[in-house]
């Protein structure tokens, strides 16, 4: 036992042949390096985690961009469909308006021809079929269209004159002015027809006059008094 102890001292003790002298490292340096290693390990782990998160975020961004492009394409398609639908609706509304106008015109034409062809009376009957007044594009100007017809028998022609008057006020007083009709006497229109005769023209309202309506008067040849009268309001 003593021999073994002596051998160990000679080998590892102070009297050993090969003795290495090392400086003792202070405790605070050891703590510092431990902290450095810990921080390095934490940083390495965070970098690896951040790299994975960045890749995931990049994939999410690409996916969202693709979905955005798809939604934009769908939005453009829906918008184009809405525009086509709106144009079709406008065209349909125009067609309906035209058809309604044609329908009204056809009804007027049917009524017009019925009035001419009806033979419920043994004598001819002269009457106003219609009188229309519309506003012109010019300031103070109006357009008129009057239609005279003869129903019943048509064995004789209707002759006479048609006079058109403006009724209204001027300087606070009621006035009546005859609408001029070219070279015809008393500002009247010459009438001569067997079935029907339209009378068309225009008139301008004086600046100081407020017109409430117009009145058409038909004077038939052979009669001293007014044969027919028909009134219309200004639009």
Describe the structure.
By secondary structure, the chain is α+β, with helices and mostly antiparallel strands. The chain has two domains: 65-117; 121-232, Immunoglobulin-like (Sandwich). The chain has two helices and eight strands, in the order ααββββββββ. Strands 3, 4, 5, 7 and 8 form a five-stranded antiparallel sheet that branches. The longest helix has 91 residues, at 27-117. The chain starts with a helix and ends with a strand. The mean pLDDT is 78.
Radius of gyration, in Å, reads: 55 Å
Tell me about the biggest sheet? 5 strands, antiparallel
| Whole-number count of domains | 2
**Distance linking N and C termini:** 142 Å
Topology, pairings included?
Elements lengths: L1 H11 L14 H91 L7 E11 L5 E11 L6 E13 L2 E6 L9 E6 L2 E9 L4 E12 L7 E5 L3
Antiparallel strand pairs: 1-2, 2-6, 3-4, 3-5, 3-7, 7-8
Key features?
about 240 residues; alpha+beta; Immunoglobulin-like; 2 domains; three-stranded antiparallel sheet; 2 helices; about 45% helix; about 30% strand; rod-shaped
Please summarize what this structure is.
The protein has helices at residues 2-12, 27-117, and strands spanning 125-135, 141-151, 158-170, 173-178, 188-193, 196-204, 209-220, 228-232. The protein is an alpha+beta fold. It has two domains: 65-117; 121-232, Sandwich (Immunoglobulin-like).
